[in-house]
Amino acid sequence: MAMPDEDDPTELVERARAGDQAAWHELVDRYAWLIWAVARDHRLSAADASDVCQLTWLRLAEHLPALERPEKLHAWLVTTARRQSLSLIRSKVSRPDIAVLAEPVDSAEHDVMRGVRDEILWRAVNSLPRKCRLLLRLVAHNPELSYADLGGAIGLAPGSVGPEKHRCLATLRRRVVAAGLTQEAAG
Protein backbone atom coordinates (compact mmCIF):
# COMPACT_ATOMS: atom_id res chain seq x y z
CA MET A 1 0.00 0.00 0.00
CA ALA A 2 1.46 3.35 -1.07
CA MET A 3 1.90 6.03 1.53
CA PRO A 4 0.39 9.45 0.69
CA ASP A 5 2.94 12.03 -0.41
CA GLU A 6 3.20 14.65 2.35
CA ASP A 7 4.22 17.27 -0.23
CA ASP A 8 1.18 16.59 -2.42
CA PRO A 9 -1.45 19.20 -1.51
CA THR A 10 -4.33 17.43 -3.28
CA GLU A 11 -6.06 16.32 -0.08
CA LEU A 12 -5.72 19.79 1.47
CA VAL A 13 -7.08 21.43 -1.69
CA GLU A 14 -10.05 19.06 -1.73
CA ARG A 15 -10.77 19.74 1.95
CA ALA A 16 -10.44 23.51 1.42
CA ARG A 17 -12.85 23.27 -1.54
CA ALA A 18 -15.32 21.60 0.80
CA GLY A 19 -15.07 24.56 3.17
CA ASP A 20 -12.61 23.13 5.71
CA GLN A 21 -10.97 26.24 7.20
CA ALA A 22 -8.24 24.17 8.88
CA ALA A 23 -7.20 22.86 5.46
CA TRP A 24 -7.10 26.42 4.07
CA HIS A 25 -4.94 27.55 7.00
CA GLU A 26 -2.62 24.60 6.46
CA LEU A 27 -2.24 25.55 2.79
CA VAL A 28 -1.38 29.10 3.82
CA ASP A 29 1.10 27.84 6.42
CA ARG A 30 2.71 25.52 3.90
CA TYR A 31 3.05 27.96 0.99
CA ALA A 32 3.15 31.51 2.41
CA TRP A 33 6.97 31.55 2.39
CA LEU A 34 7.00 30.52 -1.28
CA ILE A 35 4.73 33.35 -2.40
CA TRP A 36 6.73 35.82 -0.31
CA ALA A 37 9.98 34.60 -1.86
CA VAL A 38 8.62 34.99 -5.40
CA ALA A 39 7.44 38.53 -4.66
CA ARG A 40 10.75 39.51 -3.06
CA ASP A 41 12.67 37.92 -5.95
CA HIS A 42 11.07 40.66 -8.04
CA ARG A 43 12.78 43.17 -5.70
CA LEU A 44 9.48 44.44 -4.34
CA SER A 45 9.38 46.32 -1.05
CA ALA A 46 8.00 44.47 1.95
CA ALA A 47 4.70 46.37 1.62
CA ASP A 48 4.38 45.55 -2.10
CA ALA A 49 5.38 41.91 -1.48
CA SER A 50 2.67 41.73 1.17
CA ASP A 51 0.14 43.04 -1.39
CA VAL A 52 1.27 40.40 -3.89
CA CYS A 53 0.86 37.69 -1.25
CA GLN A 54 -2.66 38.83 -0.41
CA LEU A 55 -3.64 39.03 -4.08
CA THR A 56 -2.20 35.59 -4.77
CA TRP A 57 -4.24 34.05 -1.93
CA LEU A 58 -7.32 35.91 -3.19
CA ARG A 59 -6.78 34.48 -6.69
CA LEU A 60 -6.45 31.00 -5.20
CA ALA A 61 -9.69 31.44 -3.28
CA GLU A 62 -11.38 32.55 -6.51
CA HIS A 63 -9.94 29.69 -8.59
CA LEU A 64 -9.94 26.91 -5.99
CA PRO A 65 -13.26 25.35 -7.13
CA ALA A 66 -11.99 25.06 -10.71
CA LEU A 67 -8.35 24.19 -9.99
CA GLU A 68 -7.79 21.25 -12.35
CA ARG A 69 -4.48 19.90 -11.03
CA PRO A 70 -4.32 20.38 -7.26
CA GLU A 71 -1.10 18.35 -7.13
CA LYS A 72 0.51 21.23 -9.09
CA LEU A 73 -0.55 23.89 -6.56
CA HIS A 74 3.08 24.84 -5.94
CA ALA A 75 3.55 25.77 -9.62
CA TRP A 76 0.17 27.52 -9.77
CA LEU A 77 1.08 29.70 -6.77
CA VAL A 78 4.52 30.55 -8.20
CA THR A 79 3.02 31.52 -11.55
CA THR A 80 0.26 33.57 -9.96
CA ALA A 81 2.64 35.36 -7.57
CA ARG A 82 4.98 36.10 -10.49
CA ARG A 83 2.11 37.55 -12.54
CA GLN A 84 0.90 39.64 -9.58
CA SER A 85 4.45 40.91 -9.00
CA LEU A 86 4.91 41.88 -12.65
CA SER A 87 1.50 43.54 -12.73
CA LEU A 88 2.42 45.61 -9.67
CA ILE A 89 5.76 46.57 -11.21
CA ARG A 90 4.07 47.59 -14.48
CA SER A 91 1.55 49.73 -12.61
CA LYS A 92 4.36 51.54 -10.78
CA VAL A 93 6.30 52.13 -14.01
CA SER A 94 3.23 53.57 -15.72
CA ARG A 95 2.66 56.04 -12.85
CA PRO A 96 5.98 56.71 -11.15
CA ASP A 97 6.03 58.13 -7.64
CA ILE A 98 7.01 61.76 -7.26
CA ALA A 99 9.72 60.76 -4.76
CA VAL A 100 11.37 58.58 -7.40
CA LEU A 101 11.29 61.43 -9.92
CA ALA A 102 12.90 63.76 -7.38
CA GLU A 103 15.90 61.47 -6.81
CA PRO A 104 19.12 62.71 -8.38
CA VAL A 105 20.11 60.93 -11.55
CA ASP A 106 23.43 59.07 -11.35
CA SER A 107 25.98 59.44 -14.07
CA ALA A 108 25.75 57.14 -17.07
CA GLU A 109 29.09 55.59 -16.10
CA HIS A 110 27.83 54.83 -12.60
CA ASP A 111 24.67 53.25 -14.04
CA VAL A 112 26.71 51.04 -16.37
CA MET A 113 29.03 49.94 -13.55
CA ARG A 114 26.09 49.20 -11.26
CA GLY A 115 24.48 47.16 -14.05
CA VAL A 116 27.69 45.18 -14.57
CA ARG A 117 28.05 44.61 -10.81
CA ASP A 118 24.44 43.46 -10.51
CA GLU A 119 24.81 41.13 -13.49
CA ILE A 120 27.92 39.49 -11.98
CA LEU A 121 26.26 39.15 -8.60
CA TRP A 122 23.03 37.65 -9.95
CA ARG A 123 24.92 35.21 -12.19
CA ALA A 124 26.87 34.08 -9.12
CA VAL A 125 23.67 33.73 -7.06
CA ASN A 126 21.92 31.82 -9.84
CA SER A 127 24.89 29.46 -10.20
CA LEU A 128 24.52 28.31 -6.59
CA PRO A 129 22.78 25.03 -5.81
CA ARG A 130 19.00 25.39 -5.47
CA LYS A 131 19.03 24.93 -1.69
CA CYS A 132 21.62 27.72 -1.29
CA ARG A 133 19.68 30.08 -3.57
CA LEU A 134 16.50 29.47 -1.62
CA LEU A 135 18.16 29.77 1.78
CA LEU A 136 19.97 33.02 0.93
CA ARG A 137 16.85 34.56 -0.59
CA LEU A 138 14.77 33.64 2.43
CA VAL A 139 17.39 35.08 4.80
CA ALA A 140 17.72 38.27 2.74
CA HIS A 141 14.02 38.89 2.32
CA ASN A 142 12.75 37.51 5.63
CA PRO A 143 15.31 38.35 8.31
CA GLU A 144 12.71 37.75 11.00
CA LEU A 145 12.49 34.00 10.23
CA SER A 146 13.96 31.72 12.86
CA TYR A 147 16.35 28.90 12.00
CA ALA A 148 13.48 26.50 12.70
CA ASP A 149 11.32 28.32 10.12
CA LEU A 150 14.15 28.44 7.60
CA GLY A 151 14.99 24.80 8.15
CA GLY A 152 11.36 23.79 7.72
CA ALA A 153 11.10 25.77 4.49
CA ILE A 154 14.08 24.11 2.83
CA GLY A 155 14.23 20.74 4.55
CA LEU A 156 17.10 21.24 7.00
CA ALA A 157 17.33 20.63 10.72
CA PRO A 158 17.38 23.98 12.57
CA GLY A 159 20.90 23.27 13.82
CA SER A 160 22.11 22.86 10.22
CA VAL A 161 20.78 26.20 8.96
CA GLY A 162 23.64 28.36 10.31
CA PRO A 163 26.46 26.18 8.96
CA GLU A 164 24.65 25.77 5.61
CA LYS A 165 24.15 29.54 5.35
CA HIS A 166 27.86 30.05 6.09
CA ARG A 167 28.85 27.53 3.36
CA CYS A 168 26.47 29.12 0.86
CA LEU A 169 27.80 32.62 1.53
CA ALA A 170 31.40 31.41 1.28
CA THR A 171 30.63 29.76 -2.07
CA LEU A 172 28.90 32.91 -3.30
CA ARG A 173 31.85 35.05 -2.19
CA ARG A 174 34.32 32.78 -4.05
CA ARG A 175 32.23 32.88 -7.23
CA VAL A 176 31.86 36.65 -7.13
CA VAL A 177 35.60 37.11 -6.63
CA ALA A 178 36.37 34.58 -9.39
CA ALA A 179 34.09 36.60 -11.70
CA GLY A 180 36.24 39.67 -11.02
CA LEU A 181 33.99 41.65 -8.70
CA THR A 182 36.11 43.33 -6.05
CA GLN A 183 34.81 44.56 -2.72
CA GLU A 184 35.21 48.21 -3.87
CA ALA A 185 33.12 47.51 -6.99
CA ALA A 186 30.48 45.72 -4.95
CA GLY A 187 29.82 48.80 -2.78
From TrEMBL:
Record's signal peptide: none
Annotated Gene3D superfamilies: 1.10.1740.10, Winged helix-like DNA-binding domain superfamily/Winged helix DNA-binding domain (1.10.10.10)
Keyword line: DNA-binding, Sigma factor, Transcription, Transcription regulation
Molecular function terms from GO: DNA binding; sigma factor activity
Residues in RNA polymerase sigma-70 region domain copies: 27-92
Domain of life, source organism: Bacteria
Organism name: Labedaea rhizosphaerae
PANTHER family (UniProt xref): RNA POLYMERASE ECF-TYPE SIGMA FACTO, RNA POLYMERASE SIGMA FACTOR HI_1459-RELATED
Protein name: RNA polymerase sigma factor (Sigma-70 family)
Pfam families linked: Sigma70_r2 (PF04542)
Similarity annotation: Belongs to the sigma-70 factor family. ECF subfamily.
Taxonomic lineage: Bacteria, Bacillati, Actinomycetota, Actinomycetes, Pseudonocardiales
GO BP: DNA-templated transcription initiation
